[in-house]
Each structure stands twice: as C-alpha cells, then as structure tokens.
Write a structure and sequence with these properties.
Subcellular location: Membrane
Strand content: 5-15%
Family: Belongs to the V-ATPase 116 kDa subunit family.
Helix content: 55-70%
Shape: extended
Largest sheet: 5 strands, antiparallel
Pfam families: V_ATPase_I
Membrane topology: Multi-pass membrane protein
Keywords: Coiled coil, Ion transport, Membrane, Transmembrane, Transmembrane helix, Transport
Number of strands: 13
C-alpha cells in the first residue's frame, strides 16, 4: 500500500543495435519514457564519454524511420483488408514476437505471398459485398415509390427530354418551390423514403436546359439516385431483378469463401504475426524520435520499477552486448525531477484508486492517499447509507458489473465494497430495505432506531468526532508530505502544517470547554489558538530565522503582513467549517431513515396490500438511485475539500509504460 520505487536508466548503445534494443524495450512493457530529465543526467556528457567505447560497424546502414513508418501504415491497411475479407479478427499479442527473429522484411515477404494467393479472391468478395449493399439501398429507395407501374425505360426513350430520380429534404423542397419560376422542368413526388426525412422526386427537363437544371439542383443538395446497370422496367420489375442479382452475388461470395476457408487457420496465424510485427515497427519509429544521438551511439532515458531493472537489462542483453546502462534512484535526484507514479495497493484498496485519480495522481514523493481514502470512504458511506437490503443490492450490482463489463471492473469492485459497508452498518442500525425492528422484530440491531430521540444527538456527535479523527490523520499526512519535500515553512508553520493543526485542535478544545463536556480550562485552548495563529502569520520570518537565511521577509513588509492576516482569517473560517462539515455524516444517516419513514407512513395510509408493496418498492428505488448518488457525492466532497486539501496535491505523473498495444 504505497508507491512503487522507481529508478531512472540511461541506456547508451551502438546505433547499429538501436533498432533491436528499442524493440526489446517495447516488448518488455515496463519502461516509462522520460524526456524531461535535464536535472538528472547530461546526455551530451554521456555521448562524449562512451563515443569511443561503443563503435558501430563500418558496414552499418542507417534506417530511414520516416520511410519505415509509411511502409508499416501501408502494409497494415493491406493486412486489415485481407482479414476483413476472411472474416478474421486481428489481435495485439506480443507473445507471437517473442523467441524469434521475425522482422519487417519477413513480414513483407509473407504478406506478398498471402496477397498473391488469396488477395484477388478477397478483393472480389469485398467488391461483391459492396455491390450487394448498393443494390439493397437502391431497392429500399425505389420500393417507396407510390406508383409501381412507372416504366423508367419509356421515359429514357424520350427524344427531347431527360430525367433524374433523386431525394430532397423538406427544407430544400420548399426552396425548390420558391425557384419554380427559374426552373424549366417538371417536378413530381414519387414517394417517402423510409427512415429518412427526405422524399423521392423525379425531375423531367428539356435537353437544352440540362446545365441550367443541374446547377439549380446542385444548389439544393440534390441527392441523385442512379439506376444500377442491368436494371430496367418499373419499380416492381426492378425489385425482382435486384433480388435475383443479390442471390447470385451471395452464391458467388459463398463459393469464394469456401475456397478461402481451406487455409484460414494458417493464414490467421501468419496475418496476426505480420500485424504484430508492423505494430511493433510503428512503435519503434515513435520511440526513435525521443532518442538523443551521437556519431556512433544513441542515448535513451527511461524510468522503470526497481524490481524490473534487472529484467530490462537481461532483455536487451538477448539481442546485443553493445550497450551500457547507468542508473539513478529517484531519491538521489533533484526535487525538480518528477518520477512517474505507480500505485501499489492491495486487493481491497485498489478499486479506490479510481476516486484518487479523479482528483489527481499522487506525486512520487507524496503519501499515497488510496488506503486512507478506502477506509474512510467506506466508513462514511456505510454510516450515511446503512441498510442490509439496499447494501446487498449495491453489492450484487457491483458483482454483475465486475463480471460482465471488462472496462468497468474497477467501478464494479468499488460498488461491491460500498455495498458491503452499507450491509455492515445495516446491522448496526437494524434496517432491512428501510424496515426496522418494529416491522421486523427478529432483525438484530446494535444501537436501535436511528430516529430514536436518544440516538439523534449521539449520531450527529459521532459525525463530528469522526471528522476530528479523520482531519487529524489528514494533517499528519500533510505535515509528512511537506517535510519530505523539504518545505519547512509549510510543514511546521503553514495552515496545513503543525501550526495549522494546533489551531484546529485548539478550536475544537475551545468548543469542548465552552460546552462543559470536560473540565478543561478555556484559557489553555485560547492560548493555543493565539500562539498557532501567530506562528502562521509569521511563518516566513520564523522559518528564515531557523534556517539562518536573510532577509527574513522577501518583498514589502506591509504586503506580507496584509497577505498573512487574510490567510489567517481564511484559516479560522476553514477550521470552523472543517469539523462542522462532518455533521453531514450523521445528518445523512438520519435523512436515510427519515426518507424511508415517509414512504412507510404513506403505505400505512392504505389497506390494499398490493399498493403497500408498490409504495415501499418505489421508496426503495428512489433511495437506491437518488439518495445513493447524493450520499456518494457528499462522501466525495468530504474527501476532496475537507481532507485532500490538507495533504494531497495530485500533481504527479502516472506511470505509463511503452506497450505494443495501440
């Protein structure tokens, strides 16, 4: 439950071995490219240092990576066309490329062989399918003609007139009407095109006005319908001819497909290998643009997990020995260098990374907030939405999402955990689909009814106590993060540092003293308030004094104190609102019980059993959807605004290793 340790590798290799080395880095799928590391390494220094040690062969011929990329794109399109014709699905699978020396030249050779054997048949199938699509579309259009007896052959035979069939939208139809005086033609509506806002028309015009008529139709976005070659007669006859032609084309496609089916399995394997090779080469061309060059060598900087460092070196070692790898751990570098962040959480807390990433990615030197968020969010959601039955609905819904929707596994896991928390607190409240011990005497309960007058103050106070505990931990995380970064000023004297926490806890103790909950003298927390506020106002001069820096205040003294006083006022307001905000935990727990009570009272107003069930069912649906969403949002608000603001910046870079997949 932490952030993976990272190490920055500088890979220096011979230019003639760059291509296979880059391939291996991509196939490893565990290196994160970093081009902004000027503060970590000086590439020019390394190029100069190893230039004489790593020398390329005199026979080495540089690769033109622009041409390679163009070739890959061209051949990839050919592969996709062949697979579409064969009905095959291409899959990105790096396992196909491991353990062999299959290269782009091999892929081109195999592709030429396959294309010569089956390319023409695949092309024929594709063209015939296109013909079928065009015929089906034409059939649907002419099938909408009202008068099926119109013989288009006879209109075609007119000596002085020409005609066009086409479609016009309603808007363009009205524009055509306004241009009737400029149109030397007969316009007749033939029918309404199904599933379209357009209508079918026939335009008959004198041959000497052909250009004039076509220009007007073009301005109206006239969608001409051309009669396919070989069709004649009226619309009914054309439909019959189309059906026969489609049947003939389908038979021809079936014959060609049967021939292709013979070697389909072997072709699928070869085409997949070619496809993956082309994808790999394209990735290499992209990675090549991030490389620094010398006369004989290249330099590439990548981040890897410390646990993957050896495997990366071994992987490169399988293709060449003309390389040198140096390393630097993240902790050895300047704070200006930002290593990527790879979260490492257990099975329970991992789904809550989704909520963390919605806010931002933790930086490498921050504490990962995911475990703390997982525990606190589950507690808050369970307290606010505690019900055995409703929690079970969420749990089952999450289980279904997790198993049925691959892209939503994390969301499903998250919903299962929140549902489990709701079930747990349902036993605390003794609530099953809103029904409590009065309706279900056998249902166990730890505290009794939430709306019991004896429980209401306790539940509200519990929310505040939980808030104080959660905020205390948040302050501790914030102080740790600031001290890790070496920010003494914010860590000790800032509003989210030690002074800020002393102010917050002093304010809480002041309220405790005023309400006589304990016998604590009010003077003690008041002194704490004043001292901590003074430290926050004077945080810059105190820090500079401790660190022996001069001047004590940078900039104008007046502007500094004005800004500090306003920040102090903001701190007071934030401290007051922080703990009070957590009252909403108890308030929503009471609201949850009260909302269902309203539906229960409504159901008791009728003697019809079926109507009672319907009212209670609708009440549960409303609570599960609307109130469940509101409670989730309130939980997010408490996390993001009250807790994350104390310790989490979220300005990290997510670990994104180079992968073969698109």
């Amino acid at each position: 439950m932490a952030i993976e340790k990272m190490v920055l590798l500088k890979i220096v290799g011979s230019l003639e071995e760059m291509h296979p080395i880059l391939k291996q880095l991509i196939l490893c799928e565990n290196v994160h490219l970093n081009t902004d590391i000027n503060n970590a390494y000086n590439n020019n220094y390394f190029i100069h240092q190893f230039e004489s040690d790593i020398i390329s062969s005199s026979m080495y011929s540089p690769i033109n990576y622009d041409n390679l990329q163009s070739e890959c794109i061209k051949y990839e399109q050919i592969v996709e066309d062949l697979c579409n014709g064969l009905g095959l699905e291409l899959k990105v699978d790096k396992k196909i490329l491991f353990g062999n020396k299959y290269c782009i030249e091999d892929a081109k050779w195999d592709l030429n062989i396959i294309q010569s054997e089956i390319g023409n048949k695949v092309k024929q199938i594709k063209n015939k399918k296109i013909q079928i699509e065009e015929l089906v579309k034409f059939r649907d259009n002419i099938d909408c003609i009202y008068d099926k007896s119109i013989d288009f052959d006879k209109i075609e035979d007119l000596n002085f007139f020409e005609y066009e069939i086409g479609a016009l939208s309603s808007e363009n139809k009205f524009r055509l009407k306004r241009n009737y005086e400029n149109l030397t033609a007969i316009v007749l509506k033939l029918g309404n095109i199904k599933a379209s806002v357009e209508d079918m028309y026939i335009i008959i015009y004198p041959k000497q006005f052909r250009d004039e008529t076509k220009n007007i139709l073009k301005s109206l976005n006239w969608n001409q319908l051309k009669i396919p070659e070989g069709l004649s007669g009226n619309s009914l006859q054309m439909v019959e001819q189309i059906d026969k032609k489609i049947q003939m084309l389908q038979n021809e496609i079936l014959e060609l497909s049967n021939i292709l089916e013979i070697d389909k399995e072997e072709n699928q394997y070869i085409l997949n290998k070619i496809f993956n090779t082309l994808i790999l080469e394209k990735k290499v061309t992209e990675l090549e643009k991030k490389v620094d060059y010398g006369h004989n060598l290249f330099v590439l900087n990548v981040w890897v997990k410390e646990t993957d460092k050896i495997s990366v070196e071994e992987s490169i070692g399988t293709v060449t020995n003309k390389f040198v790898i140096t390393e630097k751990k993240a902790k050895e570098m300047s704070k200006k260098v930002k290593p990527p962040t790879k979260l490492k959480n257990n099975w329970f807390t991992r789904p809550f990374e989704l909520i963390v990433k919605m806010y931002g990615m933790p930086s490498y030197h921050e504490i990962d907030p995911t475990p703390f968020l997982a525990i606190t969010f589950c507690l808050m959601f369970g307290i606010m939405f505690g019900d055995i039955g409703q929690g079970l609905v969420y749990f089952v819904a999450g289980f279904i999402i997790y198993n049925k929707f691959i892209k939503m596994k994390m969301a499903g896991s998250l919903l299962m955990r929140l549902g489990g928390s709701s079930i747990l607190f349902g036993f605390v409240y003794g609530s099953l689909f809103g029904l409590e011990q009065e309706e279900l005497p056998w249902l166990p309960s730890l505290i009794g009814k939430p709306l019991d007058p004896r429980n209401i103050p306790m539940i509200l106070l519990a929310g505040v106590v939980i808030g104080v505990v959660f905020l205390t931990i948040s302050f501790a995380f914030g102080i740790t993060n600031n001290l890790r970064k070496g920010d003494i000023e914010e860590g000790l004297f800032g509003k989210n540092g030690v002074s800020g926490y002393l102010f917050f806890i002093s304010l809480v103790l002041t309220c405790v003293s005023i309400t006589k909950v304990t016998n604590l003298p009010i003077s003690i927390p008041i002194i704490g308030l004043l001292l901590s506020l003074l430290f926050m106002i004077l945080k810059e001069p105190i820090t500079n004094m401790v660190l022996n820096k001069r001047p004590l205040i940078h900039g104008g003294v007046g502007s500094y104190f004005t800004e500090s006083i306003f920040e102090g006022v903001e701190t007071i307001l934030n401290a007051l609102s922080n703990a009070i905000s957590f009252i909403r935990i108890g308030a929503f727990a009471l609201n949850h019980a009260g909302l269902f009570l309203a539906f229960l009272v409504m159901s008791e107003m009728t003697t019809n059993v079926l109507l009672k069930i319907i009212i209670l069912f609708l009440g549960n649906v409303l609570i599960l959807t609307l109130e469940g969403l509101v409670v989730f949002i309130q939980g997010l608000r408490l996390q993001y605004y009250e807790m994350f603001s104390k310790y989490f910046n979220g300005d990290g870079i997510e670990y994104n290793p180079i992968k073969l997949s698109k």
